[in-house]
Amino acid sequence: LGRDISPPEPVGEVLKLNQEMPSGRNSDPGIVDLDDLADRGSDRGSAGRNSNPGVVDLDDLADRGSAGGGSLMGSGNVDLDLLGENPARFLHNLASGENGQDILLGGEQALSAVVDMVVEKIRGMVEFLSITEGADWMEVNGSMSRLLAPAFGGEVWPPLTINSSAVDNAAFNKFIEALLEATKAPLPLGEDTLAAACNSLHEEVKGRPRTKDPRVDKYYMFIRNRAIAPPPANIGQGSRDVSDLAVDDALSVLSEELEAHLMEPDEMGAQAGTKVLEDVGDLNVSTFDLLELEEDLKTEAVAAWAAFLTKAKTTEAAGELIYAALFESAPSIQSLFTSPRAVQGLRFIMGLQSFIGAIDKPPQLKLLVEALAFGHLNLEVTAPRVFIFRDAILDLFQTELGAAFTDSAMKGWHNLLNYIGGAIIFVKNHYADRIKLLADSWQLANNKDDAAALAATQAEAEEEEEEEEEKKDDDDDGRQKTRWEKMKEWGRQRSGGFGVGSGSSELLGLEGSGSSEKESGEEQEGKIMIGGADVPTTYTAMFEFNATVMGFGKHRWLWEVNNSFDDMVRNVGNSGRLQEECEVLALRISKITSVAELNLAQYRSVMLAALRQMLPKTWDPRHETAWNWLWENVQRIITDVIQKPGPWEVALQQLLGGMSEDAKEQILLDVYTRVFQMAPQAQDFFKQSNTRLMFIAGRVLEMTSELFADPWGMTELISAIGLRHVGYGIPTELVAPFVSCWMEVVSSYANGEGDELACEAFRWSLSLIAKILVRVITEGSTIVMKAINANSAVGIRKAVACAPRAERAMWVLRIQVGTQQISPLSWAIESGSLEAAKVMIEDLFTIRADREKYYYGNDALFTTHTDIVERLCADALQLLPTLLDGLIWRSKRSVNGARRVNFYVKWLIVNQEGNLSGALKALAESHDVKIISHPVIVLMSDTLWAGVVRRQFIVSKLGFLFSLTVFMLCQAILPKTGNSDEEGIRWAIFVGRLLNYTFSLPRLVLFHVSRSQRAFQAGNTVKVGRFTIPKYLQDADAKMGIMLLTLLVGMCALEPMFFCVAELSTNGPMEDCDDASATLPYYTLFSMGAMVLHWLLLIDLSVFSTKLAAFVLVCKHVLNEVGKFLVAMIFILVTFSCAIASLRHDTLEFSTVPKCACCLFAVTVGLYEGDYRELTHQPALLTPVLLFVTVSVILLINLLIAQLNCSYDYVYADMLGFARLNRADIIVDTMTSCPPNRWKRFVASLRFEQLLEFDEGDVGLPGGIQIREPASQNPISHDIIQRFGGSSSPEMQWPQDDEIEADRYSRIKNLIAQINKKAQTGKSRGGDSSSVGSSGDKNRSSHDVSGYSGAGGGSSVDSATSNVS
Hints:
three-stranded mixed β-sheet; three-stranded antiparallel β-sheet; about 60% helix; disordered N terminus
């Protein structure tokens, strides 16, 4: 309030009437919210329009007060005209007792009102006359506020009922006595006496206020007794800043009773005062204790479960059996299970597996059952339904196992299932409403869209109200305003324009116009602009806002808690997960703040204030109780742990640092020895070498210490490791023995002083790692991952068939656990489960449609795995055709001999950043001619070639063509003309050669130097002997380029015109001078080689024609066969030449080895001019010559022809593929130098954002290129798109595929087998079941369960037979 200087703040002030309203009005105590002064002025209506009990319609009061002239001045009513134009005067009258009414104020207004009344009372007391003379009342008011503020534990005051009795009671008189005594005590000099006395009556201990006089505490108690419960929803705007401690007195008993809510739910249930149900039969629903079974029952139950799993052979089959048995026995409960059959069956198996695995560990079993119970809060679980489930499971075991399901096993399972069912009912009766309230309110508080919509609605309402007020003002112009109207106008001016969720600007110490510097309508993340002020619209933004305003923004730990708070709220029903989150949070807080500086109550204050402001219309005392209940437990867990990480970290580091390498190695060996002894099945999963296993164990040892040093990074790393273990298919049952063995071995080696603390730290750290690991594995073990581990195509189809249609693609692309994720598709490729990966790719690229939307996984795949094509090229090339086929849609209809074809190639051309995708480069490097000839790749490469590369390629070759033209003129054409001796011709030759040396040669040097530099910088090099060369030189064109560069350098060094430069001034340029005669022959050889290389490099231009390029590539390919022929021919030539030369004869042509080889080769190719008859007189010479001709001409040449024919046949089938590979290489090479602007224009011209039509009027999907192909090219008779009728809800599953439907025959076969089993076991069971079974039958018959039939053999056969039908 504004003391006596300014009017009080109207926002949040509430007037409360002590007595009931007159008959016909609200029956609850009336409440007047002064916010309505600004909001409801124009809403005149009848007395009955206010439907909210406990709230008085201010307009009615205004009308009656103004018209009746005080007619409301009765018992329990407030004469609002008494407020007048200065409401502060009303408080003066209230303190002096002139008014008998009650007023309800909250927050700072309540504190200020009480302070004003106390100070006003003191100013009129005779005992203080000597002190109050000349007193600094502003300082006194401030000191009195600091003295009375801790009345509610330092928190913001709740709504209080304030009247004159606040300064007229025994507690106040004692308070005045204490204050008067304090004024007589020694006080600091220079301060106001009364203010100093107020300051001396309290102090701060560990950051919390504490009084020094019990009489002040009694006055605090009196003030607290004036507090009421949190106000109704319709006055939430003015009381959103009230702290949770406002109702501490009202909730203290309840808070104590709920202290052990999660860890001891049985005790809490007994203390909470909730309704306790009587046990139903042998089902305990009144308590939740530990399940203690006899040893033989536990052993037999575990053995029966193992036998059942063995009998079923696979986990999926076992889940199918349980699912079928349950729903056959009780069709009425099928509506409770909304998950698909495969998913629900797997959940049954995983749940029962965890329970039977913990049956010998009652505390662990209790936690598991408790988590299950919290997960079933939204289901109507009753005792009859529990009996149905129990008996169905027992009947199934009896049917499948027969005599192996002993009486002890049945009794053990009977008790276990009763325990689970009773726990679910118990938890639902005690916690369901509270957990649901937390979940609903948290979801609403974090729904940004709803908050924004709510604020927009509020703004529209305010605009409409302003318009109505303006209209009313025009109508009432000239009429004098009543005091009530003046009051409403004043309240509207003071309210600051805040809407829903804003809180009072004055209450927070801010002015409503403080954000006027920002533009109107500005919108920020988590905030909106209403009335010129930033209003947070999300919980996070509201929390930050409140923490800053309340002065807690400097505490880093506060933000750390807020980062983890979402996980805590979402897992409040899972005590194990909540414990894990709180322990990790405590570990993180310990690294950023000291225990002395930590005050967890601060977070509660800010949290509750933020929630109240986010939920102004729904917040009520139930929310206060629920959120206090949650935070008390979070605070308890954090408090238990927060002081331990520091000493633990030091002790553990000393223990591990003091171990020698030999000791560590022995520990690791002992761990594996104990693990394999305790859990022999673990040996099946540790398949690596011993060195690898030692490395893994060593990392485990290091991680226990690293968790204390870096809890943020280590929790992320552990989650990532857990997701990889999902892919490995590691059962979580092995984690517990692994951890136990570690603790046992480390404890045996830790015998030194202080090692006990280190062992405790090691045990806690390893247990936390195990919790995170098990949770991640459990959450990540989806049915898709299980099918991948089995590499089952049918399993994948069944798994994805269970997915909602809007989430189907992400089921195979992402499994998210916390901040970590794993891709099932990527894992299938990495682990070699290619059958499963193929099915997933086919499913992703199947276009499905309902009436509203097309569903196609193209975008989902390429945005999740931008490098999918590169991955497949490297690891699973055989899957690429499946992926590329999925990118094509062909219409089954043809028009005028042509059909529509859509190629969805967007992500093959551009990546997420808008640059060229790496798909074409990966395909070119794969050198697969089949893949590169796929229609999708052909379209993509032709599009790139025609749109960007062709023009750029031509421009890049212009310089080379110019060099070749000049080189031909000056080396082969002009020097050979008849008038080459003319001086003009010689000058032209000289200029042309200068151009070659100054243009072509530097261009080649620059190109190869820059390419080599980039290659060495990037590490793209290769070893050739002892030398390291750039990898690009392995390309044939690059090799020829280097050779041409070398020859041009040699030509420049041997240029004869340079040697004849002395004759230049007299005879002009010439090359036949004496100085050049020695180098001219070598120069001509270099020139010939350079000419050949120039033309060979020109072969690249064949890329403009695919067929011509294919022919060139065929020629290159068959040259390999010619090379092999030449090697064989040389060998034969040398052999026969040496042999013939060793003869003694007089034929000169065969006299030496070189001459002999030349003649024999001439004979082979038909160039020898002699006749064999010339050698008839020398039989010894003629014989080897004829033999050589037989081998070379008849054998080798014909063999060469055959090889060329076969090679051509092989290459011809794929010659277009080879040509396209060559073009792809050129495209990739050219695109590296493409200007960005040209690329952007090209991508824009493709219009990938445009929706492509499937048929006329049927607008489909974007991201593709549509062409028309001849109807006979790829005939198709069915619609590629799978279209479905029925509901179009994204949450619905797609109807099952035919392949999955075909699997029903195997289920029929299994049902027939069950019929036979039941027929055989029914006779043996009859009515002679065990005592447990009898009790089950008794319970079964004693409860009226709809749709349930007995367990007799005949009825079972009938049921199964009807299902088969």
